[in-house]
Amino acid sequence: MKDLKRDTMRRHTFLRILPLLALMTLGAVSCDYIHEDLEPCDHFLRFTYTYNMKYADAFAPEMTNQAMAKQVELFIFDEAGQFLSSRTIAGTELEANRVNLDLEPGDYKLLAWAGLNDTDYTWTKPELGESMDDWRMETLRQDGAVNRELLGLFQGTLDLTISEGGATDTEFPLVKNTNKIRFVLIDANRGTGMNADDFTVSVTTRNGDLNAQNQPVSDETVTWLPYYQGVETVEDTDGNAVYQAVCAELNTLRLLDGTETSLRLTHKGENAPFLNVSLTDLLLLTKMESHDMTAQEYLDRQDEYVIMAYLDTTGGTAHCLEIIVNDWTIRLDDVNLGR
Q1: What total of structural domains would you count in the chain?
Q2: pLDDT, position 21
Q3: Rounded to whole angstroms, what are the CA distances from 13 to 8, 21, 148, 188, 289?
Q4: Alpha carbon separation from 106 to 158, 159, 208 (Å, rounded)
Q5: Which domain holds residue 90?
């Protein structure tokens, strides 16, 4: 009698786990590259952008906020770095951010650039078999200068291995290659009128292009000029104008620690700038000691800066009293940033 009960319990247990065993078996053989009667395995790619000061994935909002060029150019190379194919990922495929690669088993090198567009950039359209090392992008400029607002530009490379059998889902991390800098020039003398044309704001770098490894190709000087410059007013609680400020915004391509850069602010009627410093040195002063990162990582993670300069323009000349960069107060008498 006991043996009968024991056998009955065993049969019931087996019947309960049989569906689970069937599902496990089905999953193990549901896709394969070896057996012709099985569907090929899917291999998905998902883009991320966590290389920022928040350490949070901002890829979706960055693409959503782009005015245009809401797309990723994906270049696929073999393990030797020879070009195989490319794809433009946009629309619903980019919104879903789950790209089916449709690749055979093997080793690949992937190169992704998000935000490329014909208004701001030129880039390589490789032919079959061409080397990844020959890939280039360049910022379009006129007479060596850029004075328009660039769309955000993101880049990444990934070594990918697709094995025989089994689906994969891989994250593809990107970094941002464009920066925005906003200048706020305020006369410290209350009630002093300001004119946007009274000031010239310019930044120079030696970086206007990048290769597949995200490094500059040439060291030609690029001048970055404001795409916006105007006068804005600070009012008191009664609506009376208290201070006027000249506000300007400009872009740069990726800033590189140790390379030559300059920031020049010039007042009308003066030949010499009243502020002439290394841009990267100035920006790096805002890196907190608690930031456990190199100077280059900080420059890559931080993509927006606000530079406020308090001036004295009495007597028709401009004297810079103090500068605030991203809430950090800098008195130029205390530092050696001049060039």
Answers
A1: 2
A2: 44
A3: 9, 12, 71, 83, 62
A4: 14, 11, 35
A5: 43-176
